[in-house]
Amino acid sequence: MQRWIRTRRATEGRDYPVSRRDWRKLDESDVRVRPGKGSRPRSKRRPEHSDAVSAMVTGVDRGRWTCALEATHGREVIAMRARELGRTPIVVGDQVDLVGDTSGRPDSLARIVRVHPRTSVLRRTADDDDPYERVVVANAERLLIVTALADPPPRTGFVDRCLVAAYAGGLEPVLCFTKSDLADAEELIARYAELELPIEITRFDQEPASLAGELAGRVTALVGHSGVGKSTLVNRLVPDAVLATGEVSAVGKGRHTSVAAVALPLPAGGWVIDTPGIRSFGLAHVTPDDIVSAFPEFAEAAEECPSGCGHLGEPADPDCALDELAGTGGATAGRLTSLRRLLASRAGLDEHADR
Ligand SMILES: Nc1nc2c(ncn2[C@@H]2O[C@H](COP(=O)(O)OP(=O)(O)OP(=O)(O)O)[C@@H](O)[C@H]2O)c(=O)[nH]1
Ligand SMILES: [Zn+2]
Known about the structure:
Belongs to the TRAFAC class YlqF/YawG GTPase family. RsgA subfamily. It is an enzyme of class 3 (hydrolase). GTP binds at residues 178-181, 224-232. 23% of the residues lie in helices and 23% in strands. By secondary structure, the protein is α/β, with parallel strands linked by helices. It has three domains: 5-115, CATH 2.40.50.140; 121-274, P-loop containing nucleotide triphosphate hydrolases (Rossmann fold, 3-Layer(aba) Sandwich), CATH 3.40.50.300; 288-346. The two termini are 39 Å apart. Guanosine-5'-triphosphate (GTP) is lined by residues 178-179, 181-182, 203-204, 224, 226-232, 252, 254.
Protein backbone atom coordinates (compact mmCIF):
# COMPACT_ATOMS: atom_id res chain seq x y z
CA MET A 1 0.00 0.00 0.00
CA GLN A 2 2.76 2.41 0.94
CA ARG A 3 4.06 2.42 -2.59
CA TRP A 4 0.82 3.74 -3.97
CA ILE A 5 -0.38 6.18 -1.40
CA ARG A 6 1.56 9.00 0.17
CA THR A 7 0.10 11.30 2.71
CA ARG A 8 1.35 14.85 2.91
CA ARG A 9 2.78 14.15 6.32
CA ALA A 10 4.81 11.27 5.08
CA THR A 11 6.30 13.31 2.26
CA GLU A 12 7.29 16.06 4.67
CA GLY A 13 9.46 13.51 6.41
CA ARG A 14 8.49 14.73 9.85
CA ASP A 15 9.84 13.21 12.97
CA TYR A 16 7.86 10.89 15.20
CA PRO A 17 5.69 11.58 17.08
CA VAL A 18 3.51 13.89 15.05
CA SER A 19 0.82 15.89 16.78
CA ARG A 20 -2.53 14.31 16.33
CA ARG A 21 -4.09 17.66 15.59
CA ASP A 22 -2.00 18.13 12.45
CA TRP A 23 -3.31 14.84 11.34
CA ARG A 24 -6.92 15.80 11.92
CA LYS A 25 -6.56 18.75 9.59
CA LEU A 26 -5.95 16.48 6.65
CA ASP A 27 -8.83 15.80 4.37
CA GLU A 28 -9.31 13.66 1.33
CA SER A 29 -7.46 16.04 -0.95
CA ASP A 30 -4.37 15.52 1.18
CA VAL A 31 -4.19 11.89 0.29
CA ARG A 32 -2.27 11.93 -2.91
CA VAL A 33 -2.50 9.04 -5.22
CA ARG A 34 0.67 8.77 -7.19
CA PRO A 35 -0.09 8.43 -10.87
CA GLY A 36 0.94 5.10 -12.31
CA LYS A 37 4.25 5.15 -14.10
CA GLY A 38 4.60 3.42 -17.41
CA SER A 39 7.31 1.18 -16.00
CA ARG A 40 5.14 -0.08 -13.19
CA PRO A 41 2.16 -2.08 -14.31
CA ARG A 42 -1.00 -1.30 -12.42
CA SER A 43 -2.27 -4.25 -10.56
CA LYS A 44 -5.95 -5.01 -10.52
CA ARG A 45 -5.45 -6.44 -7.06
CA ARG A 46 -4.52 -3.05 -5.61
CA PRO A 47 -7.38 -0.70 -6.26
CA GLU A 48 -6.67 2.93 -5.44
CA HIS A 49 -10.00 3.76 -3.88
CA SER A 50 -9.71 7.45 -4.60
CA ASP A 51 -13.32 7.80 -3.40
CA ALA A 52 -12.46 6.53 0.07
CA VAL A 53 -13.49 8.55 3.14
CA SER A 54 -11.45 9.01 6.32
CA ALA A 55 -12.54 7.68 9.67
CA MET A 56 -11.22 6.80 13.10
CA VAL A 57 -11.74 3.34 14.56
CA THR A 58 -13.77 3.64 17.78
CA GLY A 59 -14.44 0.00 18.58
CA VAL A 60 -13.56 -3.52 17.56
CA ASP A 61 -15.74 -6.55 18.02
CA ARG A 62 -15.36 -9.96 16.42
CA GLY A 63 -13.99 -8.96 13.05
CA ARG A 64 -16.10 -5.82 12.74
CA TRP A 65 -14.73 -2.34 13.28
CA THR A 66 -16.85 0.61 14.36
CA CYS A 67 -15.55 3.76 12.68
CA ALA A 68 -16.46 7.43 13.17
CA LEU A 69 -16.40 9.36 9.92
CA GLU A 70 -14.04 12.30 10.01
CA ALA A 71 -16.34 14.53 8.00
CA THR A 72 -19.31 14.06 10.32
CA HIS A 73 -17.76 13.77 13.78
CA GLY A 74 -19.98 11.11 15.18
CA ARG A 75 -21.62 9.21 12.35
CA GLU A 76 -20.68 5.66 13.08
CA VAL A 77 -20.18 3.11 10.39
CA ILE A 78 -19.55 -0.59 10.79
CA ALA A 79 -16.82 -1.91 8.57
CA MET A 80 -14.96 -5.06 7.69
CA ARG A 81 -11.32 -5.31 6.72
CA ALA A 82 -10.82 -5.39 2.98
CA ARG A 83 -9.26 -8.57 1.72
CA GLU A 84 -6.25 -6.80 0.33
CA LEU A 85 -5.21 -5.82 3.87
CA GLY A 86 -4.76 -9.45 4.83
CA ARG A 87 -4.34 -9.70 8.59
CA THR A 88 -3.11 -6.13 9.09
CA PRO A 89 -3.96 -5.32 12.70
CA ILE A 90 -6.51 -2.51 13.06
CA VAL A 91 -7.12 -1.16 16.55
CA VAL A 92 -9.09 1.59 18.24
CA GLY A 93 -7.65 5.00 17.36
CA ASP A 94 -6.42 3.88 13.96
CA GLN A 95 -7.05 6.30 11.13
CA VAL A 96 -8.53 4.39 8.23
CA ASP A 97 -10.01 4.95 4.79
CA LEU A 98 -13.38 3.43 4.03
CA VAL A 99 -15.17 2.51 0.83
CA GLY A 100 -18.49 0.87 0.10
CA ASP A 101 -21.63 1.58 2.07
CA THR A 102 -20.63 4.33 4.52
CA SER A 103 -24.22 5.40 5.19
CA GLY A 104 -24.14 3.92 8.67
CA ARG A 105 -27.67 2.56 8.17
CA PRO A 106 -28.57 -0.62 10.04
CA ASP A 107 -27.07 -3.68 8.34
CA SER A 108 -24.81 -1.57 6.12
CA LEU A 109 -21.20 -2.63 5.95
CA ALA A 110 -18.25 -0.56 4.73
CA ARG A 111 -14.75 -1.81 3.92
CA ILE A 112 -11.50 -0.59 5.45
CA VAL A 113 -9.07 -0.30 2.58
CA ARG A 114 -6.20 1.60 4.19
CA VAL A 115 -4.70 2.04 7.64
CA HIS A 116 -2.63 5.20 8.03
CA PRO A 117 0.79 5.21 9.71
CA ARG A 118 0.44 5.55 13.47
CA THR A 119 1.69 8.54 15.46
CA SER A 120 1.74 6.66 18.77
CA VAL A 121 1.09 3.16 20.04
CA LEU A 122 -0.02 1.97 23.45
CA ARG A 123 1.40 -1.53 23.55
CA ARG A 124 1.36 -4.24 26.08
CA THR A 125 2.63 -7.73 26.45
CA ALA A 126 0.35 -10.04 28.39
CA ASP A 127 3.20 -10.72 30.78
CA ASP A 128 6.85 -9.75 31.05
CA ASP A 129 7.83 -13.22 29.81
CA ASP A 130 5.42 -13.13 26.92
CA PRO A 131 7.17 -12.29 23.65
CA TYR A 132 3.84 -11.56 21.97
CA GLU A 133 3.00 -7.89 22.13
CA ARG A 134 -0.13 -6.20 20.99
CA VAL A 135 -1.09 -2.65 20.22
CA VAL A 136 -4.07 -1.74 22.38
CA VAL A 137 -4.65 1.83 21.22
CA ALA A 138 -3.22 3.70 18.22
CA ASN A 139 -2.66 7.44 17.77
CA ALA A 140 -3.62 8.57 21.27
CA GLU A 141 -1.79 11.79 22.11
CA ARG A 142 -1.97 11.17 25.81
CA LEU A 143 -2.29 8.45 28.38
CA LEU A 144 -4.39 9.36 31.42
CA ILE A 145 -3.23 7.12 34.25
CA VAL A 146 -6.03 6.95 36.80
CA THR A 147 -5.25 5.96 40.37
CA ALA A 148 -7.21 6.44 43.60
CA LEU A 149 -5.71 8.29 46.56
CA ALA A 150 -7.42 5.74 48.81
CA ASP A 151 -9.77 2.78 48.58
CA PRO A 152 -7.97 1.09 46.90
CA PRO A 153 -4.63 2.54 48.01
CA PRO A 154 -2.41 3.92 45.24
CA ARG A 155 -0.49 1.27 43.37
CA THR A 156 2.61 3.14 42.43
CA GLY A 157 4.11 0.08 40.76
CA PHE A 158 1.22 0.04 38.33
CA VAL A 159 1.50 3.78 37.73
CA ASP A 160 5.21 3.44 36.98
CA ARG A 161 4.58 0.67 34.49
CA CYS A 162 1.91 2.78 32.77
CA LEU A 163 4.39 5.65 32.59
CA VAL A 164 6.92 3.37 30.93
CA ALA A 165 4.33 2.21 28.39
CA ALA A 166 3.44 5.85 27.64
CA TYR A 167 7.01 7.07 27.20
CA ALA A 168 7.92 4.04 25.10
CA GLY A 169 4.88 4.43 22.83
CA GLY A 170 5.09 8.16 22.17
CA LEU A 171 2.12 9.15 24.38
CA GLU A 172 2.32 12.08 26.77
CA PRO A 173 1.40 10.81 30.25
CA VAL A 174 -1.05 12.63 32.51
CA LEU A 175 -1.75 11.50 36.06
CA CYS A 176 -5.24 11.56 37.52
CA PHE A 177 -5.64 11.02 41.26
CA THR A 178 -9.24 10.23 42.18
CA LYS A 179 -11.17 10.11 45.44
CA SER A 180 -9.52 13.22 46.89
CA ASP A 181 -12.39 13.35 49.37
CA LEU A 182 -10.82 10.34 51.08
CA ALA A 183 -7.13 11.23 51.27
CA ASP A 184 -4.57 13.94 50.71
CA ALA A 185 -2.69 14.04 47.40
CA GLU A 186 0.53 15.75 48.53
CA GLU A 187 2.66 12.65 49.01
CA LEU A 188 1.75 11.19 45.66
CA ILE A 189 2.22 14.51 43.89
CA ALA A 190 5.71 14.76 45.39
CA ARG A 191 6.58 11.29 44.15
CA TYR A 192 5.96 12.30 40.54
CA ALA A 193 6.99 15.95 40.68
CA GLU A 194 10.31 15.44 38.90
CA LEU A 195 8.61 13.97 35.86
CA GLU A 196 7.06 17.36 35.15
CA LEU A 197 3.77 16.01 33.89
CA PRO A 198 0.23 17.30 34.34
CA ILE A 199 -1.49 15.98 37.47
CA GLU A 200 -5.27 16.18 37.85
CA ILE A 201 -7.05 15.64 41.17
CA THR A 202 -10.72 14.59 41.15
CA ARG A 203 -13.50 13.53 43.49
CA PHE A 204 -16.94 12.28 42.54
CA ASP A 205 -18.86 15.05 44.28
CA GLN A 206 -17.24 17.73 42.16
CA GLU A 207 -17.27 18.47 38.43
CA PRO A 208 -13.99 17.37 36.84
CA ALA A 209 -13.75 20.74 35.07
CA SER A 210 -9.97 21.04 35.06
CA LEU A 211 -9.60 17.51 33.73
CA ALA A 212 -12.24 18.12 31.06
CA GLY A 213 -10.26 21.17 29.94
CA GLU A 214 -7.09 19.11 29.80
CA LEU A 215 -8.76 16.50 27.59
CA ALA A 216 -10.79 18.76 25.29
CA GLY A 217 -9.87 18.52 21.64
CA ARG A 218 -7.37 15.73 22.21
CA VAL A 219 -7.29 11.98 21.96
CA THR A 220 -6.56 10.46 25.34
CA ALA A 221 -6.35 6.82 26.35
CA LEU A 222 -7.38 5.96 29.94
CA VAL A 223 -5.92 3.24 32.08
CA GLY A 224 -6.59 2.36 35.67
CA HIS A 225 -7.00 -0.52 38.07
CA SER A 226 -10.38 -1.85 39.05
CA GLY A 227 -12.15 0.27 41.64
CA VAL A 228 -10.18 3.49 41.20
CA GLY A 229 -13.24 5.29 39.89
CA LYS A 230 -12.44 5.25 36.20
CA SER A 231 -16.01 4.44 35.15
CA THR A 232 -17.33 7.17 37.40
CA LEU A 233 -14.95 9.57 35.66
CA VAL A 234 -15.75 8.42 32.13
CA ASN A 235 -19.46 8.76 32.78
CA ARG A 236 -18.88 12.30 34.01
CA LEU A 237 -16.71 13.27 31.05
CA VAL A 238 -18.95 11.62 28.47
CA PRO A 239 -22.48 11.96 29.84
CA ASP A 240 -24.01 9.72 27.18
CA ALA A 241 -21.21 7.13 27.29
CA VAL A 242 -23.51 4.19 27.76
CA LEU A 243 -25.74 5.37 24.96
CA ALA A 244 -22.85 5.94 22.62
CA THR A 245 -21.21 2.59 23.20
CA GLY A 246 -24.13 0.27 23.65
CA GLU A 247 -23.21 -3.24 24.59
CA VAL A 248 -19.72 -3.12 23.13
CA SER A 249 -18.13 -1.34 26.07
CA ALA A 250 -20.61 -1.45 28.93
CA VAL A 251 -18.29 0.88 30.83
CA GLY A 252 -17.18 -0.62 34.13
CA LYS A 253 -19.18 -3.80 34.24
CA GLY A 254 -16.33 -5.66 35.85
CA ARG A 255 -14.49 -8.79 34.88
CA HIS A 256 -16.63 -9.92 32.02
CA THR A 257 -16.25 -6.68 30.15
CA SER A 258 -14.77 -7.09 26.72
CA VAL A 259 -11.03 -6.44 26.80
CA ALA A 260 -11.24 -4.24 23.73
CA ALA A 261 -10.74 -0.51 23.99
CA VAL A 262 -13.51 1.87 23.02
CA ALA A 263 -13.33 5.52 21.93
CA LEU A 264 -15.98 7.91 23.27
CA PRO A 265 -16.50 11.42 21.86
CA LEU A 266 -16.05 14.27 24.33
CA PRO A 267 -18.69 17.01 24.32
CA ALA A 268 -16.02 19.68 23.79
CA GLY A 269 -14.33 17.75 20.97
CA GLY A 270 -11.66 15.09 21.16
CA TRP A 271 -11.95 11.53 22.38
CA VAL A 272 -11.33 9.45 25.44
CA ILE A 273 -10.39 5.87 24.79
CA ASP A 274 -11.34 3.64 27.67
CA THR A 275 -9.43 0.42 28.09
CA PRO A 276 -11.66 -1.69 30.34
CA GLY A 277 -9.67 -4.86 29.88
CA ILE A 278 -6.27 -3.55 30.87
CA ARG A 279 -5.47 -4.42 34.43
CA SER A 280 -1.75 -4.93 33.94
CA PHE A 281 1.10 -3.87 31.74
CA GLY A 282 3.61 -6.44 30.59
CA LEU A 283 6.58 -4.51 29.29
CA ALA A 284 8.68 -7.20 27.62
CA HIS A 285 8.74 -5.17 24.41
CA VAL A 286 10.25 -2.04 26.00
CA THR A 287 14.02 -1.47 26.05
CA PRO A 288 15.85 0.78 28.53
CA ASP A 289 16.71 3.12 25.66
CA ASP A 290 13.02 3.48 24.75
CA ILE A 291 12.49 4.99 28.17
CA VAL A 292 15.65 7.10 28.25
CA SER A 293 14.75 8.69 24.92
CA ALA A 294 11.69 10.27 26.57
CA PHE A 295 14.10 12.22 28.82
CA PRO A 296 15.87 14.60 26.45
CA GLU A 297 18.56 15.67 28.91
CA PHE A 298 19.70 12.06 29.35
CA ALA A 299 19.21 10.68 25.84
CA GLU A 300 22.46 12.10 24.46
CA ALA A 301 24.59 11.09 27.43
CA ALA A 302 23.23 7.55 27.21
CA GLU A 303 25.02 7.16 23.88
CA GLU A 304 28.29 7.17 25.86
CA CYS A 305 27.17 4.18 27.91
CA PRO A 306 28.68 0.73 27.41
CA SER A 307 26.61 -1.30 24.97
CA GLY A 308 23.74 -3.09 26.66
CA CYS A 309 23.75 -0.63 29.56
CA GLY A 310 20.49 -0.79 31.49
CA HIS A 311 21.19 2.71 32.87
CA LEU A 312 20.36 1.55 36.39
CA GLY A 313 23.67 2.69 37.89
CA GLU A 314 25.41 0.78 40.72
CA PRO A 315 25.50 -2.15 41.14
CA ALA A 316 23.85 -3.36 37.90
CA ASP A 317 25.40 -0.76 35.57
CA PRO A 318 28.46 0.75 37.31
CA ASP A 319 29.74 2.44 34.13
CA CYS A 320 26.49 4.16 33.24
CA ALA A 321 27.22 7.62 31.80
CA LEU A 322 24.08 9.12 33.29
CA ASP A 323 25.67 9.23 36.76
CA GLU A 324 28.26 11.70 35.57
CA LEU A 325 25.60 13.99 34.11
CA ALA A 326 23.60 13.97 37.31
CA GLY A 327 26.67 14.18 39.54
CA THR A 328 26.27 17.90 40.01
CA GLY A 329 23.04 17.36 41.92
CA GLY A 330 19.96 19.55 41.62
CA ALA A 331 17.02 18.92 39.33
CA THR A 332 18.96 16.57 37.09
CA ALA A 333 19.74 14.23 39.96
CA GLY A 334 16.09 14.18 40.95
CA ARG A 335 15.03 13.41 37.40
CA LEU A 336 17.58 10.61 37.20
CA THR A 337 16.13 9.05 40.33
CA SER A 338 12.68 9.14 38.73
CA LEU A 339 13.99 7.82 35.44
CA ARG A 340 15.75 4.96 37.22
CA ARG A 341 12.63 4.08 39.12
CA LEU A 342 10.88 3.65 35.78
CA LEU A 343 13.79 1.62 34.40
CA ALA A 344 13.63 -0.60 37.48
CA SER A 345 9.91 -0.96 37.02
CA ARG A 346 10.45 -2.18 33.47
CA ALA A 347 13.11 -4.59 34.65
CA GLY A 348 10.75 -5.93 37.34
CA LEU A 349 13.18 -4.82 40.06
CA ASP A 350 11.02 -2.38 41.95
CA GLU A 351 9.93 -3.41 45.43
CA HIS A 352 6.27 -3.16 44.66
CA ALA A 353 6.19 -4.45 41.11
CA ASP A 354 2.50 -4.30 41.56
CA ARG A 355 0.86 -4.93 38.24
N1 LIG B 1 -15.26 8.33 48.04
C1 LIG B 1 -15.23 8.26 46.71
N2 LIG B 1 -15.66 7.16 46.07
C2 LIG B 1 -15.61 7.13 44.72
C3 LIG B 1 -15.14 8.23 43.98
N3 LIG B 1 -15.21 7.90 42.65
C4 LIG B 1 -15.72 6.65 42.60
N4 LIG B 1 -15.98 6.18 43.83
C5 LIG B 1 -16.54 4.87 44.21
O1 LIG B 1 -15.54 3.87 43.97
C6 LIG B 1 -16.16 2.67 43.49
C7 LIG B 1 -15.53 2.25 42.18
O2 LIG B 1 -15.84 3.21 41.19
P1 LIG B 1 -15.89 2.85 39.65
O3 LIG B 1 -16.09 4.10 38.91
O4 LIG B 1 -16.85 1.75 39.39
O5 LIG B 1 -14.41 2.31 39.48
P2 LIG B 1 -13.69 1.64 38.22
O6 LIG B 1 -12.31 2.08 38.28
O7 LIG B 1 -14.42 1.89 36.98
O8 LIG B 1 -13.75 0.13 38.60
P3 LIG B 1 -14.29 -1.10 37.71
O9 LIG B 1 -15.74 -0.83 37.51
O10 LIG B 1 -14.02 -2.28 38.56
O11 LIG B 1 -13.49 -1.06 36.48
C8 LIG B 1 -17.64 2.97 43.41
O12 LIG B 1 -18.26 2.49 44.55
C9 LIG B 1 -17.71 4.49 43.34
O13 LIG B 1 -18.90 4.98 43.87
C10 LIG B 1 -14.70 9.39 44.67
O14 LIG B 1 -14.26 10.40 44.11
N5 LIG B 1 -14.75 9.35 46.03
ZN1 LIG C 1 23.73 3.85 31.01
